[in-house]
Amino acid sequence: QVQLVESGGGLVQAGGSLRLSCAASGSMFSINAMGWYRQAPGKQRELVADITSGGTTNYPNSVKGRFTISRDNAKNTVYLQMNSLKPEDTAVYYCNVKFRSSSGYMIDYWGQGTQVTVSS
After folding, report:
1. Residue 18 to residue 116: CA distance in whole angstroms
2. Are 69 and 93 contacting, i.e. CB atoms less than 8 angstroms apart?
3. What number of CA atoms fall less than 13 Å from residue 87's CA on the CB side?
4. What average pLDDT does the chain have?
């Protein structure tokens, strides 16, 4: 059983900041990438940021320079620092973990999501 506990969403004014965190626990042989995706109403889920176990990060242009992803491997926790937030950042943010199970399978696991609302 794997559990992802997300926290840190909320309501913030444009230009403000929020920090999301996601702690993973349970039966995971090894964790590869951890990341954040978001889905706004009527839109497809999209990548916000991800980070490998070695620390390599990936951001789309829409958040590059404003968002920073980091990871504490000892705690199996990933963080997303979001600065200079814009109304178009409003969405449900989902934590994602890609891990290898004890049986050797690669599994893609999702959190339940946390709402981020940016008011103008």
Report:
1. 9
2. no
3. 2
4. 96
CA atoms within 13 A on the CB side of 117: 5
CA–CA separation, 87 and 54 (whole Å): 32
Q: pLDDT tens digits for 56-81?
A: 999 999 999 999 999 999 999 999 99
Strand residues in 1-120 grouped as ranges (E) = 2-7, 10-13, 18-26, 30-39, 46-51, 57-58, 67-72, 77-82, 91-100, 106-110, 114-119
**The tokens of 29 are what?**
């042989």
The four Cα atoms 18, 23, 24, 30 give a dihedral, to 10 degrees, of 90
For tokens 């702690």, name the residue.
Answer: 23
Work out the angle at residue 50's Cα, subtended by the Cα atoms of residues 99 and 22, and round it to the nearest 5 degrees: 70
